[in-house]
């Protein structure tokens, strides 16, 4: 047998092996990377959706928390994974906006992954401890104007989404807060709020649902234009009374992704599996209970949506840099 024939035989064998693997997918448990700490909102939502989704599969889906670098550490592991659907990940705002804008992961862009579906969206909100003297957003803003840099507000990472939300709030109202950064973790924000390290935090209401439901915290405002049914006592920003009309709607989302070059039929099966879980009464009722908005976009639509969202926010962030409000 010649060397050329040997190479041809190896190539054919590899092709048959890949084809068989695709036809048999999934043939072992699926690893689901959550690039954030356990106990946060993203972690809870992905675990819930994956637990329901695996009921339609002959294998299990197990969540692994891979923290660090505003989701960059988890993204790096996804990029290095085999494109066979056996390793997938959940990505959020920072994965699509913060990391590429700040070039935190050289060589990374959205072409390095294939999007399966967007499953939820969550507006940012401001939450305070139950015993806080601030009863409304206007109270908080007035206090921050009276004593600039005295009110401590916890965010998730400098330059990340919650930081951008707070910077825009300051820009539009003239208030000045003392910004306290936590490493991409709603769990750390929870602890800080409870132990008095901060006076308020910026993150989604869903991230803090257990504290709000137990009466340990109160939401002052959600940066949305619609009332959150899960938190009827927290007004959307469009219904708040402030001295300056606020035009500020910000939040995150959860998108399930696979490595680039994952075959179409594998993406389709993963999409169908998650869509069935998404449509289930169990998942829909649970989302309503924790105050998270269901926001399905399938594989055909979510990539364009992500590209459009990225460009829009890049433009906003570049303008803030030009104004000296944000550092890149």
UniProtKB/TrEMBL annotation:
Keyword Signal assigned to the entry: answer is: yes
Entry keyword set: Signal
Q: Cite the Gene3D superfamilies for this sequence.
A: Bordetella uptake gene, domain 1, Periplasmic binding protein-like II
Point out the signal peptide segment: 1-23
Report if keyword Signal is assigned: yes
Belongs to which family?
Belongs to the UPF0065 (bug) family.
User: Which PANTHER family does its entry note?
Assistant: BLR1237 PROTEIN, TRICARBOXYLATE-BINDING PROTEIN
Q: What is this protein called?
A: Tripartite tricarboxylate transporter substrate binding protein
Q: Which species does this protein come from?
A: Salinicola corii
């Amino acid at each position: 047998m010649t060397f050329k024939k040997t190479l041809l035989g190896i190539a054919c064998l590899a092709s048959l092996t890949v084809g068989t693997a695709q036809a048999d997918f999934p043939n072992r448990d699926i690893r689901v990377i959550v690039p954030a700490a356990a106990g946060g909102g993203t972690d809870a939502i992905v675990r819930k959706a994956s637990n329901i989704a695996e009921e339609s599969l002959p294998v299990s889906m197990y969540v692994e928390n891979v923290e660090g670098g505003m989701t960059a550490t988890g993204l790096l592991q996804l990029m290095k994974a085999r494109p066979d659907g056996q390793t997938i990940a959940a990505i959020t705002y920072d994965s699509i906006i913060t990391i590429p804008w700040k070039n935190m992961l050289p060589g990374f862009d959205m072409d390095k992954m294939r999007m399966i579906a967007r499953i939820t969206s969550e507006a940012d909100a401001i939450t305070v401890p139950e015993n806080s003297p601030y009863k409304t957003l206007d109270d908080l803003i007035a206090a921050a104007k009276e004593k600039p840099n005295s009110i401590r507000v916890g965010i998730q990472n400098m330059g990340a989404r919650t930081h951008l939300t707070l910077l825009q709030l300051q820009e539009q109202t003239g208030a000045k807060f003392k910004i306290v950064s936590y490493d991409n973790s709603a769990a750390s924000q929870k602890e800080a709020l409870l132990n008095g390290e901060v006076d308020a935090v910026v993150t989604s209401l869903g991230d803090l649902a257990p504290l709000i439901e137990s009466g340990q915290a109160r939401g002052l405002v959600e940066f949305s234009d619609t009332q959150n049914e899960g938190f009827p006592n927290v007004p959307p920003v469009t219904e708040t009374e402030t001295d300056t009309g606020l035009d500020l709607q910000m939040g995150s989302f959860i998108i399930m992704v696979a490595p680039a070059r994952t075959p179409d039929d594998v993406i389709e099966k993963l999409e169908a599996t998650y869509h069935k879980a998404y449509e289930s009464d169990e998942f829909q009722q649970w989302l309503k209970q924790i105050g998270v908005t269901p926001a399905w976009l399938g594989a055909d639509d979510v990539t364009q949506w992500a590209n459009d969202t990225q460009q829009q926010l890049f433009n906003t962030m570049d303008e803030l840099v030009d104004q000296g409000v944000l550092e890149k």
